[in-house]
Structures are given as structure tokens and as C-alpha cells.
Amino acid sequence: xxxxxxxxxxxxxLGVRESLRAILGSDYDIMTAGSGDEALGxxxxxxxxxxxxxxxxxxxxxxSVLEAIKKIDPEIEVLIITGYGSFDTAIQGLRNRxxxxxxxPFDCDHVRHVVQAAxxxxxxxxxxxxxxxxxxxxxxxxxxxxxxxxxxxxxxxGDEQDAPLSQEQKLALDRIQANSxxxxxxxxxxxxxxxxxxxxxxxxxxxxxxxxxxxxxxxEVASAAAQKGVTVAIDVPTDLVVTxxxxxxxxxxxxxxxxxxxxxxxxxxxLAARSxxxxxxxxxxxxxxxxxxxxxAETQDVIAGRPGADPPRLLGFGLRLAGRLxxxxxxxxxxxxxxxxxxxxxxxxxxxxxxxPRIASNG
Length: 363
What we know:
Elements: E1 6-10, H1 14-24, E2 29-33, H2 36-45, E3 50-54, H3 62-72, E4 77-82, H4 87-95, E5 100-103, H5 108-130, H6 133-159, H7 167-197, E6 205-209, H8 210-228, E7 230-237, E8 240-245, H9 246-262, E9 267-276, E10 279-285, H10 293-304, H11 317-329, E11 332-338, E12 341-348, E13 351-353, E14 358-362
Parallel strand pairs: 1-2, 1-3, 3-4, 4-5, 7-9
Antiparallel strand pairs: 6-8, 7-14, 8-13, 9-10, 10-12, 11-12
Helix pairs in contact: 2-3, 6-7, 7-11, 8-9, 9-11, 10-11
């Protein structure tokens, strides 16, 4: 059995199939299909690494074939084949998680380069998912270190007193700091989610004072909210306690609060909590435009951890992380949205509460 990566060429034109076979045949194990139905049959039976797909074929539409391929194996890389007048269709394919597109007539070197890049991404994703813990730790360090260096040097430049900076230079340094901080946050969130998925972060159960959590999160998002003119209010009993993982609950509330602030052009974000029988309900409300039903559905797929579900295409890091944390904590998440904004309700089990006066503050 060949050890070469397996490429499936899907096109109703024999000339196109044979052209791509001639370009790629020396480096890859080539299979061909003349229709979408034939291609799906092959993908269901055989191990396929990459598919080149003509979106304009008789019978089953190319976008439907692409979606079905991703349901069979989300890691199969797909390259869209485009001809004259089909560029808009190619863009639609990219939005449906195709890796790239190949234009007819084919440039041999370009085809080889794009195929190599697509297969390299597939290999990298597989290695990351199977990477032992020490490799994940090394990757995390390698990403964080240069970002911390950039942030450190930009801070030093901003504090330099011998040569005062111009307004333009200060603005440039501020942008470096802001974007580096945002990127560092994304990197840390990414690796945290990978570690969660691999079961490397155990639950650390103990008493969690919800008022402390909400006050802490309020302080963390206050600066970003103030820049937009958004106020952040909290409404929580002073001694509402659950037995859970404080760090994970804090991360969960913060991810929802970050999202609420980011998508509220003005108005108010409210962080609230209340006791409901033997549970605590944490609530994050905003006055933004309202989350879309598609985002709600994808968040529920993440929470459910459905093995056959499509990978989320629209979710940002905030809701992806929130979905994972809800699942790990054994909690529930209900999201309602409308013109008045979005409300996220997290139901946390295993609680002890006391009905005392409520903390209410704006910040």
C-alpha cells in the first residue's frame, strides 16, 4: 500500500482530471471522480487527504459536495477549481472551509505549491492533536516568548526619557502594545482550549464566591468597556457560593463578558447571578445587536461535544472557550438574543447559597 498522500480529483471533464493527474501524479497517490456522488462514495470508503473539486458539475452541486466531504472528515483539505466567470462561486467555497482555489488553465508550479501547502496544514493539525504534553508546552513557550519580548521592548521605548517621542511614534507604540497583547491573549486561549480538549487541566473543586468572581471580571473588562462608553454593572448576592472550579468559572464569565463588551457599541453590560433551587444561574446581558441563531447553534455543538457535528465556522475564541468550559464544568448555557441585545445564562450545579443583601455597582 502506498505511503504517498492521497489526492482525489473531482471534475466532470476528463481533460481536467488528466491534466491534474499529470501535474501531481509523480508526488501523490491519485484517484479521480467524474461526479459529486462518485467522490462522496470514495471519501466514505477510502482514506483521502486532499480533494480538488470543480464546483460547477452536473448533478449534485459543488458546495453540497464540499459540505458533505467535511461531514465525512473535517480534516480533508479541499481545493476549489475555478474557471472563467466562476470566481464568486469559488469565494463561496472558501467560506465553506475550502483551503484555496486553483484557476484554469492550470499553472503547474502554482498547483504543486498550493497542494503542498494544503497537505502541510493537514499534517500540522494532526500532529498538534496527537502532540504529547511536552511538545504542547514547548509550542506555547515558543509563541509566548517573542510576543513578550516585543511588548517589553515597546514599553521600554515608550518610557525612554532622553529622546521624547512624537505623537505619531507614541500612537505606533500603543498599537504595537495593543495588538501584541491581543495576539498573546489569543495564543494563550488557543493552547488552553487544546489542553482542555486533551483532558490536561483537571477540575480543582472548592468553594467559589460568585460575588468575588463577578467583581474580578468587571475589573478586567472595565478598560475596554470605558473606551467604548459602555458601563459594566454587577448584581449578585454578597455570599452566593458554589462548589466548583473558581478559575474555570472566572474564565467562563470573562469570555462571555469580553464578547458582550466587544459587540456592544454603547449602553450597558450586566454581570448578574441568582440562586435557583439547588443551582446558581450566572447571567451576562448586553445591549448590542444580538447574537445570530447560527452562532447560538454552533455554541451548542461545542457544548455538546458532538463527534459528528461540523466544526464551528463562525465562532470566535470567546464562545468556543465558553462552550468548552460549560461542558467541562457540567454546566448549562442558554443564549437568547433580540434587538435589545443578548443574554447568556450559565446554570452551575452543586451550590450552597445564602440570601443576603445584593451587591449592585457600575464600573
